[in-house]
Design brief:
Largest sheet: 5 strands, parallel
Radius of gyration: 14 Å
Shape: globular
Structural class: alpha/beta
Distance between the termini: 32 Å
Order of helices and strands: EHEEEHEHEHE
Strand order of the largest sheet: 1-6-5-2-4
Oligomer: single chain
Low-confidence stretches: none
Strand content: 15-25%
């Protein structure tokens, strides 16, 4: 079942000794609104193409125990992608993983952590 994760918990995870792409992966499903900043180390799988890239994502991350999805607000695209990912992964692999949705999305996370280069990259104030 998809769970929620708050920004401070995600920041703690990123700053921990856990390794991105191995111990966890952050999936950003924003489309054009991806420009202007992103969570450091996240992978952009735009919602418009998400279903086309889903099989590749599931295969590539079958051994990644923690998956975090988000979009701008994490109210529609992020939760939908997380649910579809989890259902597909469970159907294809006997994966032992936890799937999260970043509560508040990048709209909350970005401005809160924009000054920390370990957490946010490519920040463009003019966009936000």
């Amino acid at each position: 079942m998809v769970q929620g994760i708050i920004g401070s918990e995600l920041a703690k995870l990123i700053k921990s000794d856990k390794v991105p792409d191995k111990d966890y992966l952050i999936v950003d499903v924003r489309d054009e609104d991806w420009k202007g900043g992103n969570i450091k180390g996240s992978r952009n799988y735009p919602s418009q193409r998400f279903l086309l890239e889903l099989d590749d994502l599931v295969e590539r991350t079958k051994d990644v125990p923690i998956m975090i999805f988000h979009c701008a607000l994490s109210q529609e695209r992020g939760p939908k992608a997380a649910r579809i990912y989890e259902e597909t992964c469970n159907a294809l692999h006997d994966a032992d993983h936890t799937v999260y949705v970043l509560q508040g999305g990048f709209v909350q996370f970005g401005p809160a952590y924009k000054d920390d280069p370990e957490l946010v990259e490519n920040w463009r104030e003019v966009i936000w």
